[in-house]
Design a protein that fits this description.
Length: 300
């Protein structure tokens, strides 16, 4: 790992980095080896597993993917390591016949009319709209799983992505709070991931960093840094039937993470909830939780 870039180079994942080395408002920095963030971990090599669990002392994995994603992708290598605990904390609502009803679309509701409560702003139309994907009878609306914006300007698509991010908080505040508690109490390194390591992972990591006092510009820059690995992320996702059809319908540069998306999301929390800590506190997060997380991530 390069202390300057924070990237962790692995054979089977491309968007893996340490949340250490980020400046805090009190003049300190976050600690290395405490929280890692990543894309999908399905393809880790034996050498990757050894590096993560040995050199980096990984002990807890926070998997933010939906139930159908986990089922369709199958168990990853880390699920077979006894000393690693897997915490499946989907950011989509669960219930009924389908495990994650916001991402899993019943057959009678497929097609462009299925928007769900997380959808905000205008709907995509024409060839840009990939719609739900189906594998072995399960359907996933990838537009909810990977809500990547289509335009570079701060227009309706920016609002749409922020709407999805707020939807995560609205639908599964329990998963968000529990994810941060795993980060705070892990006996080794904790790793949080989703499919691309950008949207769901970006939201949870941003809340954790805000909660311990990381400078806002650093939080936003960390979110945007995923763009440095965009080509590799897309290549990996296209190799999976779970995600490939949606990605192939869109131009590659439409998937870039833009700093203004995260900046607007955090500004919305400031305005409506008193910031990340205000939102967390309204959903069961305590001052003791903040102290534990801060001690873990910053040593203070």
């Amino acid at each position: 790992m390069d202390a300057q870039t924070r990237w962790i180079e692995l054979d089977g994942a491309v968007n893996v980095r340490d949340l250490g080395g980020l400046a805090t408002t009190d003049g300190g920095t976050t600690r290395f080896g405490r929280v890692l963030r990543a894309d999908n971990l399905q393809d880790l090599s034996p050498e990757d597993v050894q590096r993560l669990t040995g050199d980096l002392a990984l002990r807890d994995v926070i998997d933010l993917r939906s139930g159908p994603e986990v089922s369709l992708e199958g168990p990853g290598p880390l699920t077979r390591i006894p000393k690693v605990s897997i915490h499946h904390l989907s950011l989509f609502a669960e219930g009924g016949e389908y495990t994650d009803v916001e991402a899993d679309v019943p057959p009678e509701r497929t097609g462009p009319q299925q928007t769900g409560p997380q959808q905000t702003g205008p709907q995509e139309t024409g060839p840009q709209e990939a719609g739900p994907q189906e594998t072995d009878g399960q359907k996933i609306d990838i537009d909810k799983v990977l809500p990547w914006q289509e335009r570079r300007d701060e227009g309706p698509e920016a609002d749409r992505s922020v709407g999805h991010y707020l939807g995560y908080l609205r639908e599964r505040p329990d998963s968000v709070v529990n994810a941060l508690r795993v980060m705070a109490t892990s006996e080794g390194a904790a790793l949080v991931h989703c499919a691309a390591g950008k949207d769901r992972t970006g939201v949870v990591c941003a809340l954790a960093l805000e909660a311990v006092g990381v400078i806002r510009e650093e939080v936003v820059a960390d979110y945007a840094r995923t763009g440095e690995r965009l080509e590799g992320i897309l290549r990996r996702l296209r190799s999976s039937t779970t995600y490939a059809a949606d990605l192939d319908s869109r131009p590659a540069d439409s998937h870039l993470p833009h700093a203004y998306i995260m900046d607007k999301f955090l500004a919305t929390l400031d305005e409506n909830h008193g910031g990340a800590l205000g939102w967390l506190s309204s959903h069961g997060w305590t001052a003791a939780d903040t102290r534990t997380l801060r001690a873990r991530l910053t040593g203070s």
